[in-house]
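Researcher: Good morning. I'm working through a list of sequences from a screen, and I'd like to move beyond sequence-only analysis. For each chain I'm collecting a predicted structure so we can compare shapes side by side. This is the next one on the list. No need for commentary yet; just the structure.
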Amino acid sequence: MFAFLEDFKYARWVKRLNRTTQVILSLALVGGLNFVAARHYTRWDLTPTRRYSLSAETLADLDQIVRKSMQTSPGTPLTLYLISSSSHMQGQDMGQLVLDQVGTLLKEYEDAANKLPGGKIDLEIKNVDVDKQLDMAKKLQQYSPMTTFPEVLVQFGDRTRVLNQIDLYEVEKNQTSKELDPKKFRGENAITSAILDVVEKRTDKIYFTTGHGELSINSFADNGLSNLSDALKLRDYKLAEINLANVNDVPADAKVVVIVLPSTVRSAFAPEEQEKLRRYLDNQNGRVLLYLDPNADPGQTTGLENLLREWGLFSPNKQIIELDGNHLVAGDKLPMISPAENPKLHHAIIDTLGLTGQYVELGWLRPVEKDPQATEDAQAQVHDLLRTTGLAREIDIKAAAITTADPKGPFTVAAISERQASDTVDLPSGKLLIYGSTDFITNNMLLTRGANLLLTLNSVNYLASHETILNIRSQTSYEPSLGLTTAQFEGLGWRLALLPAAMALLGLGVCWIRYRS
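Model: Good morning. Structure tokens for this chain:
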């Protein structure tokens, strides 16, 4: 019946059909295996530190807390944006390392969201290069200053939280280069905390004091704070004004109290108001952010001098003038300060600026010093944050001219005093942060001068941050490497050649057998 197949003309076509069918079946097998493997697979983390595994605490939070919030807001995805800039990070090995490590971690969140015990949750990971995705960058710019890369933006509905490198890493000073180096990666702790913040709708309330000539968050004038108000509201802070003379105590829901005193102070804080701030700091582990300008009246006091002294700080009513050589810096060239130029300064508030080499323009300045007469307090720590250059001079407000007798810089113009609730346990505690300037947070300078907005947001975020209750390990920051010794490397060549050689021998054997047959 099939005798015609022995005809050479037909046999050739049959062989072609047979080979074509084998190729198609082979491709179908490979495709089918990949299709099944993409949907049904098991991953094993064989690293000693479980680097590629989310903690049980994160998995439980995603499965329970995040799922519950999504059930009350159906159709609202949880989106994690990894924001980078190809031009900004070009040639920066550390920036690429951070991008790779954070990107790997976000993939773990995406994988975990698909395999939770309670079922899949709607979690999306989006990589955004601001140089190539201009529309997306413009959309996200309202939530992030986009002055540091890479960074992570966590979004759930209209609520967002931005994490930069200082949030994701613990940094240390390099004793050789005096630069900041990321040492421990705490990305999972930071990202899981940010996720809980946005899905649980945690809202921190910030009070701005009134009654003493303070700058107003409702003013759109050049010296108003409406831009600051808008920036904080976009980041889910709730703002309110408070006159301490009209309340018995600082409200219990106050996460931060902000005092912005310009050069013309209407009246000093009364002793009763100072006492309310003292109780807030001591008894409520309060956070106070104080901005002071050099007062136009040499005899003017703020009424807060005793409180500052109790916290180891002192801000005399003097003006710091920045010089260019022996001449006053003129016109619009305001004093610029870069934390990167002060290698001895190191704090979470300024480390982002130090890592990226950014500067701030603070305007008119007054000194903020560690009080030499303050009583030693083992639980209090004072950290200098910003210093002027060595060309700066400190003069009295009433001075008519600069003289060679005026003290020379550098001068500290921002400092923070922090108290621990215990010597041995790191519990939430009071914090008092002072800047010797108000100009840089006004509408005229906040958004247009250097990294003023970034420094301001860092300050507020640091003071208002939720004390983490997550027990998620930090990991050593790593740079992938083979780590081969010379002997191992020399023996690597022939080992790598074993598999190709074996395949070649197998092919020769098959050819020989077919030839013999």
